[in-house]
Amino acid sequence: MLTLASDSAHGVPPGVTALFGGILAATILALAFEEKLHAKKSLIVGLFAAVSLLLAEAFGLMHRDPVEFLGHTVDLPVYIPGIDWGVIAIMLGSGLFVDVTSKSGLFSWIAIRLTKISRGEPMRLLWYYGVMTVVFSAVLNNVTAMIIVGSLSGVSLRKLGRENLLLGFLLVEGLLTNIGGLLTLISSVPNIIVGTTADISFVTFFLKSSPYVVVATIATIVLGAKIFAIPKLRTPEERAEADELVAGFDERDGIESPGFFWFGVVMLVLFIITIATTSVLPYISDLGMGFVALSFAAIMLVRYKSEVDTYYRAIDWDLLGFFAALFALINVMEHAQVLAVIGGWIQHLIGLGPTLGSGSMLLSAAVASSVTDNIPLAAMLAKILGGIPGISDDPTSTYWWAVIFGANLGGNLTPIGSASTLVAVTLIHKYGISFSFADFVKRAFPFAMVHIGIALVYVVVVLRLFS
User: Fold this and answer.
1) Three-state DSSP class for 73?
2) From CA 73, how far away is CA 76, in angstroms rounded?
3) Fewer CB atoms near the end CB (10 Å): N or C, the chain?
């Protein structure tokens, strides 16, 4: 059990813990007002991490212990061991792999092909785009998925003369990015952080989350069609006109090389299979998913071996720097006993029992992630749960899943809750539609309540019964 140790073996005075707790609260508050501050995440957290490390050294909270590595003693700075380099490797490798693979034209080919199959039927198009958003969010990052599907929605609906449906399509797609972000272990950052901490395998994660994703996706599209009055084409003349309009789309436009296109298809399938089976593959299991992601990225980069620097420049260094600084900050908070204090509060939730405890944690995580970044929330809660006996060594515990579902779904309550919903709002504004913060909350609220309601039943009832 996590406890505050003001006069215990850790010897951290309550006043010092309170000081660092204030720094953590200030960090979260600054991240919530990131846009107002006109500063990137990495800079915000990096500055707070630097201040925290200096104060930790001043108060003697952290000690540098030599590390034995391959028979050698390595003296590392105190902040290095606190960084989860496996998570950094997964994000770097999978980001590079997806970026290069997208150049093959594979994802645009899928999107345009589905548009043509829909034959311009708005209701069918909503279903196809909705499912495509979920799938793309599962294999790409949520922002990339929203940009691809959202941009195509704008082009398609304008060609079909259905601009009045843009708001409904873009909002539904934005909400579905966070549903799709629950599908696999690598679909979202909170999944990676919590899943790796809890030692949940790729296959286990998919099997446990996919039933919820299917139900939530269907509920979202049905509700979206009803709320936004997405019509069905009634007459043969309407169908013929829409069919003729979508026939002008050419899915081959984004394919620069048929050979590279099929190479991208094969590599994507192999990537998913290898990631899914990493835990059972000889040698690979010891190297981890980060190694797999980096290896596949390197293989894809061979195609552009003379211009790999272009892809290095496109890496989201802000995100990686944010991760590194965040892990260092959380490590300081652990030594300052801030996590122990928060863990004490969580113990009260756990004391309510598996049903009320898991449900309360899911709701708390959802509300918290709706007003600030869900990544530090997931990192902090994962660290705390990882120190509680009975939960830390049980990857089937519903408390892990409460954090995963809450951190992902909270992004559907407000436009600042997740990057992909913010992109959706940006696209809505781009197409000249007036849509304020309050408008988003009002429109998204029914969807968020359905998502969180289904998640509560699923986590505290279904997952408990089959854990």
Assistant:
1) strand
2) 10
3) N
